[in-house]
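Researcher: Sequence of UDP-2,3-diacylglucosamine hydrolase follows. Predict its structure.
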Amino acid sequence: MSDIILADEPADEPVDPTRQKTKLRVRTLIISDVHLGMPDCKAAQASHFIRHILCDQLIMNGDIIDAWHLRRLGGWNKGHTGFLRTVLKKMEKESTEIIYLRGNHDDILDRFVPIQLDNFRIIGEHIHRTARGNYLIIHGDGFDHVTTNHPWIAKLGGIGYNILLRVNRLYNWWRHVRGKDSFSLSRWVKLKVKSAVNFVGRYEEQLQELAKSKNCVGIICGHIHSPANKIIGETHYLNSGDWVESMTAILEHEDGRFEVVTYHDFCERTNRQPKGPAKSTPVVNEANFGVENVTLAM
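Model: Prediction complete. C-alpha cells:
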C-alpha cells in the first residue's frame, strides 16, 4: 500500500533513528472538533496523525470546519487545505470510507444531509456496529441546551473562547520564556468552575439515556472538547476531544477495543517527530477491552 505523500509535506523524521517508523493499523478512526479556520486549530498535527493511521473507516464527528469563525473573521490557511487534501487522499489511495457527521460549527452542512459522494458520506448521526453491540455516533450539540435553544449565546460563547485562547497563547509564550510548560486556561476553567463541571456531567448522562433509548451499548460524541472513555451506568461513553487544545481522537482496534489516544502517544508509538511545540492533553482510558495495539512497519 502506497504512502500518502503531499508535495509540500516536510520529511517525517524518526524520534529514535535506531527504530523503524511505523503506522498504526486500526479498524476505525474517529476524530472531531478540528475547527479548521481558527488560528488555534492544530491542522498540521491532525493531518500528520490521520496520514499515518491505516483504517477501514474514518469518522469525522462534527466541527471539522468552523464556519462560525470563518463567517466573522476568515482565517483559512494552507495547513487547513492540507488537512482536507489528506482526508481525500486517504479515500483515494487507501480506499478508506469517510463518514462526516455535521456539528454545530459546520451546521451549513444541514442543507446537504444526507448525501453520498463516492466513498464519502455526510450524515446527521451514525450507528456503528461492533461485536459487543451497536454504538451511536453523534456530534452531541443537540444535548447542549444553550447551543440548541439560544444559538446567539452559543456564538457569543464561541467568541469568548477565541479570546481566551488568544490570552492563553500570550500567557504560554511568557511561560516558555521562563522555561515552564504550557498551561490550558480553558481546561482549568472546565475543571475548577462548578457550573462547567456540572454541565459536563449532565451532558454525559443525557447522552447515556439517548444511547439506551436506541438500544446501543455505547455512545461516541465530541462537542465539549473533553476526551473521555468510561462506563456511565450501563453505557460505554466515549468523547473524542478536539484538535484545538486536547489533540485527541478515538481508535477502534481490530480486537474491538476502543481507545482515546493523544497525538503525542501516537508519535511515540509510531516513532515519529511531533509537528510543532504544542502538547496533548493527558487522557485516562477507564474502559478497556481487548489486547495490545498492533503496528505495521511502513
